[in-house]
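Two folds, back to back.
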Amino acid sequence: MPRPISAILLAGGKSSRMGREKARLKLDGGLTMLESIARKLSAVSDEVIVATDGRRYDDLGVGVKWAVDVRPGAGSLMGLYSGLREARHDYALVVACDMPFLNLDLLRYMIALPRDYEILAPRVGDKIEPLHAIYSRGCLPAIARLLEAGHLKIIDLFGEVLVRYLPEEAFEKYDPEHRSFFNINSPGELAQARAIIKKRQGEG
């Protein structure tokens, strides 16, 4: 039985490329992306934390804890820091609010792996997926140092702590198309996501 884990949903971004707030987008006329992802996370964690820059959202359909950025506008690393500070478990699964195709089987696989790391992150070729990863609360001192030095990106943390990378062959049986890592930053990507959902519904 895997040890308990917290889940952090990062929802403090500016959505500048999208032009409107991504967390409130609806892909199929039903749930907002924030609602949908919070509900998925509640299936794998008994503590879902939504990290924002101070914004609040309507009822998400599941119980969540709100973590307001210690310093709003200071990037994704600040969101991670603020969320980890609120986590009651030693490790936290971290995802972004613009990832509509999270795969529960893949998340459960990652959660069940031995926790011999401070970060566990998938790697696809040369690309690392820092917003579909598990972080230890032991990262907090290193994050604090980076923030103090003006670093705002989560990837900056990877050179400071013990990282275990999940190779493609380890997760492709759960998600062969790598849809889990698809994120929506632009109207074009939103249209692409809606097309994927429509195709899936047609196949169903």
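---
second:
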Amino acid sequence: MALSVFDDKSKPPPETALAAALGGSSTHWDNLKKSLAVEFCPLSFEWGFTSNSTGWGMRVKHKERVILYMTPCWGYFLASLALGEKAIKAALASDLPNKILKIIATSKKYSEGTGVRLAVRNSSDVRSVTKLATLKKL
């Protein structure tokens, strides 16, 4: 089973299926896209199928740089970011919720940065993800 609720490689998810899968979290999906558009201009959104184990996800890009990935799940979605050292230090010194700071502190480091994956279920999560994304500017 794929991480994403959408695992049919032959076609990206239609908007109606996305809204049905996300349920009440579709508002948070839309709000995250809107808040990122305020911070990063121009911003583009493109669906991509990474692998059978991941399924379909949305790449959120500022020019050619991927800001984050949004992976739809049943009733919520995942936001995944790669954070550099400056962004990690700023995040750990910020007022982000303790649960987010623990995730950051225990996340695996890769050559492109520390991989952080957060479940987005409410407006507080949207604010946290937006803040982390803006720290990527550092």
